[in-house]
Amino acid sequence: MEKIDIHDGLESTLVILHHRLKGGIEVVRDYDRSLPKVQAYGGELNQVWINLIDNAIDATDGKGTLTIRTARDADRVLVEIGDDGPHPYRAPAPGCFEPFVTTKDVGKGTGLGLDISYRIIVRRHHGDLSVTSSPGDTRFQVRLPLRLPTTTAKK
Q1: What is the pTM (predicted TM-score) of this model?
Q2: How many Å apart are CA 33 and CA 13, to the nearest integer?
Q3: Cα–Cα distance for residue pair 82/52, rounded to 1 Å
Q4: Helix, strand, coil percentages in the chain from 3-state DSSP, rounded to 5
């Protein structure tokens, strides 16, 4: 557990996934650079960013817009990862954060990425992970507390 800059992790993830972005995906960054650092497991959050951004890339079929936004939401940090993919075939299913639930075609997903992300955000970081989706507009929203509960910080 360490104090991290959310933006550093997001940018590192974009570097890692650069090869998937260069085919025609525009990345729009809407960062609130005044956000404070958060107490978090940096490597685990990077896994969440990889899962969510990779899913967004898949949803656009390699052509479209990936939007990453950060903001303050009361006593939490909001990270929103959105895409403009068509989605009729992959609108988040009920229970999309459950293990082995996938909206991808057969052979293209394990159904574990959102489950892992949910566990990291909700159970490990006491945050929230939600999704809204309609054709052309899907947004995954991660909310992380600025301060972890005292009992968690001591562990």
Answers
A1: 0.83
A2: 17
A3: 9
A4: 30, 30, 40
Helices 42-60/6-16 angle, 10° precision: 50
Q: Is 45 exposed, middle or buried (0-12, 13-18, 19+ CB in 10 A)?
A: buried
Angle at 95 between CA 152 and CA 112, to 5 degrees: 70
Give the side-chain half-sphere CA count within 13 A for 65.
Answer: 12
Tens digit of each residue's pLDDT (9 = 90 or more) over 2-48: 999 999 999 999 999 999 888 789 999 999 999 999 999 999 999 99
Read off the amino acid at residue 60: T
What DSSP character marks residue 108? S
Instruction: State the residue for tokens 């562990």.
Output: 155
